[in-house]
Every structure is written in C-alpha cells, then in structure tokens.
C-alpha cells in the first residue's frame, strides 16, 4: 500500500504527468505500427512507410516552406485572437452594462462556424494569407474571450476593495491587479484555442491555397499520393503535440508567477 501511495505521489507531480504522457504517446504509436504493419491496402499504409515518406518530403526545401507558411499564418491568427479576446473579455467582464448590450450579438456570431465564412473571407481578402489569418483569428477568439470575461466577472471582492483603497485605477489597475487575477482563466482559453487554430489552419489551406500543410494534403489526396497525404497528417499530429507540450511549459511558469504558492505537487 505504501508503494502504491508513493507511486501515486510521484505520478501526480509535473515530471510524473509528463512521463505518463510520453508513455501514452509511445503506446499509441506502437499500436498504430502493429495494426498497420501487415496492411495490404494503399489507403492505410504501414506507419514505417509513412515515417520514411515524411522524412523524405518534409525535410526538403519545398516541404519546409509549406510548414513555415502554415506556422506563419497560424501564429498570426492565434496572436490576434489572444490579444482581441483578452482585451474585449476584460471589458465585458468588468462592465455589466456592456455585457448586456453585446451578449446577443456575441452569441449570434459565436454560433456561426468559422468554416462557413470561408466564401465571405475569400471575397473580402481574396485567396491570400490574410484570408487564412482572418479565419483562424475569428474561430480562436471565442474561447479566449469567454474565459477572460468569466475570470474578470469573478474578481475577488477583497482584492478589488484593496485596489480601490490604495487608489490603483486605470491602466495600473488592469495590468497589476486584474490581469494577474484572470491569468489562469486566460490560459485555459488559450489552451482550448491552440488545437482549434490547427484545425482552422488546415481547413483554410484546403480551399484555394497554393502552399501549406492543408494544401499539400489536399493535393496529395487528389493525385492519389496517399503516402504523402498520410505523412502530412503525421506532421500535423507532431506539430499539435509540440505546440501543446511547449504551451504547457509556458503555462506552468506563468501560473507560478501569478501565484507563487502554486506547486506542481498540489
């Protein structure tokens, strides 16, 4: 019983959770490898062949250029979504009259899938990187905005009263009191937005684009280059894993900064 308790304690730490995640990832890859090893269909090729194709194509100048194009639009769209979501969320969460005024409009706009606005975005920006950035920002802004607004709406009354007593107002109040208090909620919204940004990036690149991961996957599927298509899917999965993993490290550091009492062992 003592051994089980000690093991549970170790696995509950940050390193323990990382180790479990690595074990799970390797387990999924091993299952994929075994299930596809004796595959006789081109639609589900062996994982070893997909990895070989990925190493051959995605390390070439053309493959790297497509990855760079995708990451550029994703970064720009996600950055715009975070800045806009945090700014508007802070305003809505702290001003009830503004929340009541804009809530119906926000609910209407949030209910529209970003992919449904692809024709509108193409008319507005043409087939350009701006079109893809617009769609990514539009789809990713909602989790950040709503999570930030919820955090700003639930500010600790004692903290607010203390800031008022010390005459901390205006931008100083927002940067030194409100923003640190809502930071955990902002980070939750960003965590939700990251995988969503990958989905919107690929979707926007499948329509009228001339480069990017989504473009390569679509072209490979249309020309029956199924190994290239699968290698693009594999690269997408790797990018999603790396983005989430790196963000978890940043998130952990920021949460420690916002609350020094926070510990990974909790």
Write the SSE topology.
Elements: H1 2-11, H2 14-36, H3 47-57, H4 61-94, H5 96-110, H6 118-125, H7 129-153, H8 157-165, H9 170-205, H10 213-222, H11 226-258
- Measure the end-to-end span: 21 Å
- CATH architecture term: Orthogonal Bundle
Structural class: mainly alpha
* Count of alpha and pi helical runs: 11
Series of H and E elements: HHHHHHHHHHH
Strand residue percentage = under 5%
CATH topology: MetI-like fold
CATH superfamily: MetI-like
Helix content: over 70%
Strand segment tally: 0
Low-confidence stretches: none
Count of structural domains: 1
Shape assignment: globular
The CATH class name reads: Mainly Alpha
The whole-angstrom Rg is 22 Å
Main β sheet profile: none
What is the overall pLDDT average? 85
Protein name: Binding-protein-dependent transport systems inner membrane component
InterPro entries: MetI-like (IPR000515), MetI-like_sf (IPR035906)
Main location: membrane
GO biological process, one term: transmembrane transport
Structure report:
The protein has 266 residues and is mostly helical. It has a single domain, classed as MetI-like (MetI-like fold, Orthogonal Bundle). It has eleven helices and no strands. The two termini are 21 Å apart. The relative contact order is 0.12. The model has no long low-confidence stretch (mean pLDDT 85). It is found in: Cell membrane. It is a multi-pass membrane protein.
């Amino acid at each position: 019983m003592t051994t089980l308790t000690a093991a549970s304690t170790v696995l509950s730490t940050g390193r323990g959770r990382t180790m479990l995640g690595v074990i799970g990832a390797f387990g999924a890859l091993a299952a994929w490898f075994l299930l596809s090893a004796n595959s006789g269909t081109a639609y589900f090729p062996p994982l070893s062949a997909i990895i070989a194709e990925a190493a051959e194509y995605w390390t070439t100048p053309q493959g790297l250029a497509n990855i760079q194009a995708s990451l550029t639009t994703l970064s720009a769209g996600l950055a715009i979504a975070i800045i806009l979501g945090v700014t508007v969320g802070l305003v809505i969460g702290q001003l009830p009259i503004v929340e009541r005024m804009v809530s119906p409009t926000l609910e209407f706009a949030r209910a529209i899938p970003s992919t449904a606005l692809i024709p509108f975005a193409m008319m507005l920006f043409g087939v350009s990187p701006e079109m893809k950035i617009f769609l990514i920002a539009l789809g990713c802004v909602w989790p950040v905005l709503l999570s930030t607004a919820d955090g700003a709406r639930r500010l600790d009354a004692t903290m607010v009263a203390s800031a008022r007593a010390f005459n901390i107002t205006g931008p100083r109040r927002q940067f030194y009191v409100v923003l640190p208090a809502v930071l955990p909620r902002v980070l939750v919204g960003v965590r939700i937005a990251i995988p969503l940004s990958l989905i919107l990036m690929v979707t926007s690149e499948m329509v009228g684009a001339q480069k990017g991961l989504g473009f390569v996957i679509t072209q490979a599927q249309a020309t029956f280059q199924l190994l290239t298509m699968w290698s693009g899917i594999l690269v997408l999965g790797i990018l999603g894993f790396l983005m989430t993993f790196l963000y978890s490290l940043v998130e952990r550091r920021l949460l420690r900064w916002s609350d020094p009492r926070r510990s990974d062992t909790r």
